[in-house]
Specification:
By secondary structure, the protein is an alpha+beta fold. The protein has helices spanning 11-19, 41-45, 66-75, 102-116, 143-148, 151-160, and strands spanning 2-8, 24-32, 52-59, 84-85, 88-89, 95-99, 126-129, 133-135. A 6-stranded mixed sheet has the order 7-6-1-3-2-8, with helices on one face. A two-stranded antiparallel sheet has the order 4-5.
Length: 161
C-alpha cells in the first residue's frame, strides 16, 4: 500500500470523490502544510495556522496508480484558484500536492506541467513535501457519507425528486 496527500478545497468533497476510486483502500481528512502542531478545525479556520484542509489516501498501486490519482485531483477542482475553491475562501482551501517521496514529486511536477497546457491562467497548485498530517476531528471523517445516510436528509431528498 502507498499513500498520497492532496488539498483541493473543502476536504469533505475531495474525500467523497476519492472514496469512489477503485484501488483506494482508505481515506482520512485532516490538516497539513502549517506551522502549528495538532491544530483543531477552529484554529485552521482562523487562517493563522497555515494548514490546508487535505486528504490522505491509502491506495493499492497494483489497482490504481499515483498518476491516475493525480488525474482525479486535477479534474475535481480549479487549480488556478489561489487560496480558494468556489465559495470557500482562505489559505486552508488552497490547492496542493503533498508528496511522500521523490518519485511522487517528479510525477506531480510532470503532471502539473502537462495540466498547465489546459489553462490560460497559471496553475496555483503547490507541490511540497509532506511534513506532518494531522487527522481532523471524527465528525469530519466521511462527512458527506454521513450526511447522505442521515435519515432527515434522506426524507428531504425523497421530496426533492
Amino acid at each position: 500500500m502507498e499513500k498520497a496527500t492532496f488539498a483541493a478545497g473543502c476536504f469533505w468533497h475531495v474525500e467523497e470523490v476519492f472514496r469512489e476510486v477503485k484501488g483506494v483502500v482508505d481515506t482520512k481528512v485532516g490538516y497539513t502544510g502549517g506551522n502549528v502542531k495538532n491544530p483543531s478545525y477552529e484554529k485552521v479556520c482562523t487562517d493563522e495556522t497555515g494548514h490546508a484542509e487535505a486528504i490522505e489516501i491509502t491506495f493499492d498501486p497494483k489497482i490504481v496508480s499515483y498518476e491516475e490519482l493525480l488525474n482525479v485531483f486535477w479534474k475535481i477542482h480549479d487549480p488556478t484558484q489561489m487560496n480558494r475553491q468556489g465559495p470557500d475562501i482562505g489559505k486552508q482551501y488552497r490547492t496542493a500536492i503533498f508528496y511522500h517521496n521523490e518519485k511522487q514529486k517528479k510525477l506531480a511536477e510532470k503532471s502539473k506541467k502537462e495540466q498547465q497546457k489546459n489553462y490560460q491562467d497559471k496553475i496555483a497548485t503547490e507541490i511540497v513535501s509532506l511534513k506532518d498530517f494531522y487527522k481532523a476531528e471524527e465528525y469530519h471523517q466521511r462527512y458527506m457519507e454521513k450526511m447522505n445516510n442521515n435519515p432527515i436528509n434522506n426524507l428531504i431528498n425523497k421530496f426533492r425528486h
